[in-house]
Specification:
The chain has a single domain, classed as Rossmann fold (3-Layer(aba) Sandwich). 34% of the residues lie in helices and 15% in strands. The radius of gyration is 19 Å and the shape is globular. It starts with 10 loop residues before the first strand and ends with a strand.
């Protein structure tokens, strides 16, 4: 698929988690020219933790979750020319308190360093869209769910199963997960993810009013519940930057195959009759919004220019 000219060149995709860039940006991930992907939440807690999302994903604890998810990310991006970077912050689900100023400083400093090395480069952030449904509750204990998930892959449960999960990923077998059933399927509509919102707001505040090219991508699957344009309207109203919108057709077969590498995340992220590892479960278009904050300064005094212009 042709890539809009503004999405060519040096690009940094800021991915809150280990699957967001692939879920939302196949237009860019599928291109031949290398780009940079900065994944923010890649650290594991000092002591293993058990959380609801990891339970839904079939993991024993946070150690197992992070090890397998890192392996899934390796498999999903294997064969691409892209440079991957791990910021090393904790996922919100592992935090006992809120984000610290040090977290924000770590994120903004990394992006600033990238911008110094890539003059005129484009930084892409999540729109952080979505609604707030009640989270689903797992019915089976964690150990049972983890064992059953691994058994579906022909693997044994427990920490020793991690090596076999890696081997299955390398063979392309781990993507063949059965559909989600009613007992653990997520509710219709995807909730706003706090990590997405924090990444977006931290970097939007940091980059606005600077001569920096930055923009947003619509979060998949969260845009199925609430269009990213709704969030963009709010951002434009708050920050006053000019926005150009791009709707880009995507090869859903290729994208679904790549997403299938994130085998542990497909079922929890299923919000309809089809999974994200099925072409029918993906939107036909990926949506991007690029800001031009410096253009406001060029407007005739007293004339506002805060709109958006859809492009295809």
């Amino acid at each position: 698929m042709p890539i809009p000219t503004p999405l060519n060149g040096a690009v940094l995709v800021v991915s809150p988690h280990l699957d967001d860039a692939v879920l939302s940006c196949e237009t860019l991930i599928g291109r031949e020219a290398p780009l940079d992907v900065l994944t923010v939440c890649t650290a594991r807690p000092a002591q293993p933790m058990v959380t609801e999302w990891d339970t839904l994903s079939g993991f024993q604890d946070s150690d197992e979750a992070m090890e397998v998810r890192l392996a899934e990310d390796d498999a999903a991006l294997a064969g691409t020319p892209h440079r991957r970077h791990h910021l090393g912050l904790l996922d919100q689900q592992y935090l006992t308190a809120g984000r610290t100023p040090e977290d924000a400083a770590t994120l903004t400093a990394w992006v600033d360093a990238w911008l110094r090395e890539h003059e005129g480069g484009l930084v892409l952030l999540p729109t952080a869209t979505g609604v707030l449904p009640d989270p689903p509750m797992p019915r089976r204990p964690l150990g049972v769910r983890a064992a059953r998930r691994l058994a579906r892959l022909g693997l044994r449960a427990g920490r020793s199963g991690i090596r076999l999960v890696r081997e299955a990923l390398s063979r392309g077998e781990a993507g063949a997960m059965p559909p989600a059933t009613g007992e653990h399927a997520a509710p219709v509509g995807a909730g706003v993810n706090p990590d997405h919102r924090w990444v977006r707001d931290t970097l939007t505040d940091h980059l606005t009013d600077r001569l920096t090219r930055f923009g947003y991508y619509e979060d998949v699957p969260y845009g199925s519940a609430r269009p990213g344009q709704d969030e963009m309207d709010g951002l434009v109203a708050r920050h006053g930057f000019h926005v150009e919108a791009y709707a880009v057709p995507v090869d859903r077969v290729v994208k679904a195959r790549r997403i299938g590498r994130y085998a542990t995340q497909v079922a929890p992220l299923r919000f309809g009759p089809h999974g994200l590892d099925e072409p029918e479960g993906l939107p036909e278009l990926e949506r991007y919004w690029l800001t031009r904050p410096w253009e406001d300064a060029l407007e005739i005094p007293g004339q506002l220019h805060h709109g958006h212009h859809p492009r295809s």
